[in-house]
Design a protein that fits this description.
By secondary structure, the chain is mainly alpha-helical. The protein is built from 3 helices and 2 strands; from the N terminus they run ββααα. Strand 1 and strand 2 form a beta hairpin. The protein is elongated.
Length: 70
């Protein structure tokens, strides 16, 4: 698959955002500091946040429900 440019101002792709999330970036603020996403015009902020959230949720450990004793 071809990478999708999310932040045109800084030539940041969705793959770079996903990689950053896998490396521990967990907020748009951290993403801005790490990659420079949304540091220019800011029009990419929403999409960058959605990709970041998607990657974080996708890599989260599954939560197992254990009912408390009655």
């Amino acid at each position: 698959l071809q990478p999708m440019y999310v932040c045109v101002c800084n030539a940041i792709t969705d793959k770079q955002i996903r990689r950053a999330a896998r490396n521990g970036v967990s907020s748009l603020y951290e993403l801005r500091g790490t990659l420079g996403v949304a540091a220019g015009c800011g029009s990419c902020a929403r999409t960058a946040q959605e990709i970041l959230d998607e990657e974080i949720v996708g890599n989260a450990s599954p939560q197992i429900y254990v009912p408390s004793p009655a």
